[in-house]
Amino acid sequence: MKLSASGRENFYFYLFIMPWLIGFIIFALYPIAASLFYSFTDYDIISSPKFVGLANYQELFQDELFYKSIWVTFKYTIISVPLTLILSLIFAMLINQKIPAKGFFRTAMYFPSMVSGVSMSLLWFWIFNPQIGFFNYILSWFGVKPQLWFLDEHLALWALIIMSFWGMGAGMLIFLAALQGVPASLLEAAKLDGASRWSTFWNVTFPMISPIFLFQLIMAIIESFQVFTPAYVMTQGGPNYSTRFYVYHLYESAFKNFRLGYASAMAWLLLIAVLIITYIIMKTSNHYVYYEGGKES
Amino acid sequence: MKNGRKLWFVMLATSMLLTLFLSACGKGGSSEGSSSDPVTITYYTIDSPDRTFVEKLIPDFESKHPNIKVKVDKAPYEQFDSKLQANIAAKKSPDITSHFGYGGFMEYYNKGLLTDLTDIMKVDNFKASDYGIQDELMNIYKVDGKTYGIPSNNYVTLMLYNKDMFDKAGVSYPPSDYEDKSWTFDKMIEMAKKLTVVSDDITKTQYGVDFGWGELDMRPAYFGAKVYSDDAWTNGGKPSETYFGSPEAIAAYQKWIGLIWDQKVSPPPAFSKAVAGQFGDPFLSGKIGMSVVGSWSLASQKDFNFKVGVAAVPIGGNKDVRSVLYVDPLFVLKDSKHPKEAYEFIKYMLTTEVQEKSIELSGGTPPVNDNAKEKYYNSFEGVDPQVIKQVYEGANKYGVESYNHLISNYSQLNELLINEFQSVQNGDQKVEAALPGIQEKITKLLERLNK
Amino acid sequence: MMNKQLISRGLAFLILIVCTAAMISPIFFMISTSLKTKSEMLLFPPTWIPQSFQWENFKELFTNDEIKFGVLYQNSIIIAVLTVIGTVFSSAVVAYGFSRYRGKGRNLMFMLMISTMMLPYPAIMIPQFLLFSEMNWMDTFLPLIVPAFFGSAYQIFLLRQFFNTLPNELYDSGKIDGASELRMFRSIALPLSGPALATVAIFSFVWSWNDLLAPVLYLNSQEKFTLPIGMAAMISSKFRIAPWNLLMCAAIMAVIPVVALFAVAQKRFTEGIVLTGIK
Question: What is the CB-side half-sphere exposure of residue B247 using CA atoms within 13 A?
């Protein structure tokens, strides 16, 4: 079979991306559409789905817990993501200096982020133990009374935020690599021009790493919207719903209360929220993200 | 480059073979053979040693019933109900279970999850007396004259106490006689005060009493308050009204929470969870003097590293309500493909021999079979069998059936209460401030569920 | 001027020392707790170094019938390894397609693929759950492994970036030899992509190893549980008193493969990040 040159390109292109394309249809496209469908039904798994129109959405918008879970997720995201990102950038810059034992510091700061998932939740659950935990012990050195942490509805989320800082090493590594990609020539030029370190950072370093920064920011926000493990392992969304993350509320609605229609409505709203936020971030990024040689696709 | 290609090919082939192999494993469970092939039934229970002992009975059962194989599936207590529904939804319904989780008989019945056993039992000529089961107990699990569950265990609420702690403090033991009218809730508080030591050093801290009488919605009943309208007991567990916000209920909850924050004789959740973990039992840590708890706790007797005594629950607000009765039935689930075989296993579990063996293997599961009761009373090292008998009979006399068996959609109701009461238990909110809000939420929930 | 630089470097060093100590101390405490006895772990203030090193704790972790740690480990390894094989293989193929061929609709396909990176799993998990339960795959490893064979957006993206760096001239010699497209992929592109593939392998291993939500949804019997589920179960009501020392042992054991992987592949990994992460 003789194909034209472009025909050939077409054929091989689709041949190679076939695995992804098929997977996309089965595991992404179909579920997204199905989620939308189920969100208009009342479905408890045991009996077949009953069409209820917009009832699920109406109920959601009156549900106190729905708003609570949005607030919990929002609060966590807005505090944890920027701070963790900034911390990883700061430490990347600190390590990028000419100091002894760079490798040691890099490994030591990165190591904690390898303790992730359930292991991390268990460890920090133990550390924040109100009576015999490590954190309260260290606080006692500074004369601070033992705190209830995960048993206190005002502190539980903060405990999780503190825990999230501990994992900043992964981002730090990526920023380190990015920093090393900043052309030395540019830095030299800035120094010759007598630029201060602060000015050099803002006008040379940051622009050079801004695409990475943007990417990390978006991925971190999306990940933070999906926090589930700590709620499942440690707090079950409590105390008093103070750690009832959106995805945990979704999970409970679907698999504990067996309201799959209701949970599907929540799923769709999450999808829309992610799309909107990503769009906003990308649009506003034009102000500070610099792409070498013009925009990339 | 030939080696590179070979490697890829091998890896691809291996992973495909593995996937095929695993999928065969997955499908294997659902294949059916001819009627002469052994049939496998699944028994679903709580993941704790005092329930999973059933696994040890399997070899004996299988030798008596060569065409039936038994598998035991388990889940932690707080996940029991949701895992069950997930399994049913995924077409992997177990055959036999009981209401071991939050939810109870009525909930399962109303969701259409139970098989009617009446016909199987008639064909088999089932007589409750053959298994030492009282007729009243059989009636609990009949709806419109049809049997959906057969009682297999008979738990009560009782008081466990730490003899070593009492000895050290020089306090005399609480009574086990339910007819002793001096043994009141206030007397218990007095006793608890003598045992409580609060110190900055957590290893020295101990509390006099941990009052875990029934689930959260039942506690007012102990103090004489009503929370569900009377029609709930006759219409399939759907109360038309609830009274959680009533002054009586508020007073009842205040008395209970007062043990922690006013009388300061009970451990705050921070203490319990620090010492025993999120879902653990602080009594086992040896830091609690008296524990009012379901008699399943007694089954952990091997884990106690102190001397344990058994006593009566003191008189609260209602002299006829001093214990919660948990008559646990075994039922066969609607989606079971082998109801006859499941029924055989249930009968097996009810025989005197097996009920006695169960006591041994579990550490102390109370039998429903009257013939096995003597064995039960004699199973607890260091505790006088007469005392246990006295406490058990007293509890049955002054007991009330657990609400979780009788109220529909109980698991969601209980989940709501557990979540909502956290701030009150932690001392962040006063009972009287929280209950009106809780009442509203319950009303809304029941409206949605029972419509 | 020299002094200023020295001061700032000295300051950086000092800050790093303090912060590193803070970052490492939880790990120290984790190890220390894992070697304590049940009674010592409940002491407060906590002891830094265990009074006696209870190495038996690790043994107990594996022999304890309630935990069945060995089974958990085995299951996690099987699933992770199969996931890695599937992901690496399929992502490489797809990424190569995106990089090398200018098919019609390429940009659209690429945008779609990128957008799935942002697709939150919860948005699709319910229909996927229903789909897998229809196929009777519940309580098997299949729902966790099979999707990996269809490529993962993040890894496809990384690998595409890498393949983009391979100049077209590279394939010219292949064309002259009359090699097929598949042959060129296997014999020219792949051998050069060692570090990039290693990076993808590591990422997907770690992701699968730590995954909690999907296993919770699909695995029901204890013999099939993975490490995350099994470890979370250790603080459920299964244990009347939470065995903190064993929990720390479990956490350590769970982390070891990840650490080992990074240690072994560290060089290739940083190469891979540089090659694929930037631009």
Answer: 0
Whether B182 and B281 map to the same domain: the answer is yes
A129 to chain B: which residues are within 8 Å by CB? 274
The string of DSSP codes covering C96-141 is HHHHH---TTHHHHHHHHHHHHT--HHHHHHHHHHHHHHTT-TTSS
**Distance of alpha carbon C20 from the chain centroid:** 24
Is the domain of B315 the same as that of B425?
yes
Is residue B13, in this structure, part of any structural domain at all? Answer: no
ipTM of the shown complex: 0.85
Predicted confidence at residue A1, as pLDDT, reads 54
- Annotate chain A with DSSP letters as a single string: ----HHHHHHHHHHHHHHHHHHHHIIIIIHHHHHHHHHHTEE--SSSPPEE-TTHHHHHHHH-HHHHHHHHHHHHHHHHHHHHHHHHHHHHHHHHTSS-TTHHHHHHHHHGGGGS-HHHHHHHHHHHT-TTT-HHHHHHHHTTPPPP-GGGSTTTHHHHHHHHHHTTTHHHHHHHHHHHHTS-HHHHHHHHHTT--HHHHIIIIIHHHHHHHHHHHHHHHHHHHHT--HHIIIIITT-STTTT--HHHHHHHHHHTS--HHHHHHHHHHHHHHHHHHHHHHHHHHTTT---TTS---
* B100: CATH: 3.40.190.10
Distance to chain A for B76, nearest Cα, Å: 13
B129 in the same domain as B79:
yes
CA distance, residue A292 to nearest chain C CA (Å): 9
Side-chain-side CA neighbours of B25 within 13 Å: the count stands at: 12
Which chain B positions have a beta carbon within 8 Å of C191's beta carbon? Answer: 1, 4
pLDDT of residue C279: 39
B303 and B443, same domain (yes or no): yes
With CB atoms and an 8 Å threshold, state whether A19 touches C12.
Answer: no
- Diameter of chain C measured on Cα atoms: 75
Q: How many CB atoms lie within 10 A of CB C104?
A: 13
Domain that holds residue B238: 157-325+386-449
The model's pTM:
0.83
Chain A residue with minimal CA distance to B111?
A46
Q: Does C48 touch chain A (CB under 8 A)?
A: no
Q: Between chains, do C16 and A119 touch, taking CB under 8 Å as contact?
A: no
pLDDT at A68 (0 to 100): 93
Interchain CB distance below 8 Å, A46 and B85: yes
Contact B47 C138 (CB under 8 A): no
Q: Is the pLDDT of residue B181 over 70?
A: yes
Nearest alpha carbon to residue A240 among B354, C131, B417: B417
pLDDT tens per residue, range A117-157: 899 999 999 999 888 888 988 898 898 888 888 888 899 99
pLDDT range class, residue B24, cuts 50, 70, 90: very low
- Arithmetic mean of pLDDT over chain B: 86
The full set of domains in chain A, from first to last, is 57-285 (1.10.3720.10)
C-alpha span between B274 and C81 (Å, rounded): 37
> Which residues of chain C lie closer than 8 angstroms to B30, CB-CB?
136
C109 with A17: Cβ contact below 8 A? yes
Q: What is the torsional sign of CA A69, A73, A76, A78?
A: negative
From CA C268, how far away is CA A285, in angstroms rounded?
32
* Boundaries of domain holding C116: 55-278
Chain A interface mutation, best of C99, C113, C124, highest count of A Cβ atoms under 10 Å: C124
Residues of B in Cβ contact (< 8 Å) with C89 = 8, 11-12, 15
- Is there a domain that residue C231 lies in? yes
| CB atoms A153 and B419 under 8 Å | no
Report how many domains make up chain C: 1
The answer to whether the Cβ–Cβ distance between B22 and C233 falls below 8 Å is: no
